[in-house]
Design goal:
Helix content is 48%, strand content 12%. With 209 residues, the protein is an alpha+beta fold. It has one domain: NADH Oxidase (3-Layer(aba) Sandwich). The chain has a four-stranded antiparallel β-sheet with strand order 1-2-4-3, with helices on both faces. α2 packs across α7 and α5 packs antiparallel against α6. It binds flavin mononucleotide. The site of flavin mononucleotide has 10 residues, from loops.
Length: 209
């Protein structure tokens, strides 16, 4: 199974098989893949919310322009950013790094001070867009892992983030939803599953210098 074969196998699944669930192992793989996603400075200011509860998801459908994937998929992954990014994130990252690598203080200190200052000077709107950019990297990573594991998925930004945040109680835990990734298995009747991929010719998207 080659990477390219799998990337051709995957598609933005519109209709999921409501009766097929991913195994705990498959969900664990997706959680770990999310956690292994590269982030700027390694700060990991993202969270993955895994929603299994069907009645909760039914309530979310109307806030996703009635896209049924939200409820029909096996699980709904919601990629979130923190509402606040500050020196405490730098602090906890370096504490973790020190715990895992036993890096001496004198090596860490200059970089930690530089990063704390950079973040303290960053305007709030810039911090938010910086975090959101990283949510997209996590989305791409998860989609590729899904393809490799033959898990169907549908990347989605077609939803009302504020309404999702209210329904899922994300404000209360300092988070803001950015992207959705319903995951599971394609329905046998999904019209989209047999359609040819529509992509530009490679010569139009790649420039050699
Ligand atoms: C960031 C992003 C947001 C998307 N949002 C939606 C969405 O809300 N609903 C949907 O059905 N598809 C959505 N798509 C799927 C794209 O339409 C689809 O990936 C694209 O047409 C290419 O088709 P393929 O993924 O099936 O190869 C989204 C894709 C991306 C990357």
């Amino acid at each position: 199974m080659s990477v390219l074969q799998q990337l051709k196998w995957r598609y933005a699944t519109k209709s999921f098989d409501k009766d097929r669930l991913l195994s705990d192992n498959q969900i664990q793989t997706l959680k770990e893949a999310f956690n292994l996603t590269a982030t700027s400075y390694g700060l990991q200011t993202l969270k993955l919310v895994v929603v299994t509860d069907k009645s909760l998801r039914q309530e979310l459908v109307k806030h996703a322009y009635n896209q049924a994937q939200v409820v029909d998929a096996s699980h709904l992954l919601v990629i979130c950013v923190q509402n606040q990014i500050d020196a405490s994130d730098v602090e906890s990252h370096f504490a973790n790094l020190q715990r895992i690598r036993q890096t001496p203080d004198e090596v860490i200190s200059p970089f930690k001070s530089h990063l704390t200052e950079t973040i303290s000077q960053m305007p709030e709107d810039k911090k938010l867009s910086w975090a959101i950019n990283q949510a997209y990297i996590a989305l791409g990573n998860l989609m590729t892992v899904c393809a490799m594991e033959e898990i169907d998925s549908c990347p989605m930004e077609g939803f009302i983030t504020e309404a999702f945040d209210d329904e899922l109680g994300l404000h209360e835990i300092g988070l803001k939803s950015v992207l959705l990734l319903p995951v599971g298995f394609r329905s046998e009747t999904d019209f989209f599953s047999d359609l040819k991929k529509v992509r530009k010719d490679l010569s139009q998207t790649v420039i050699e210098m």
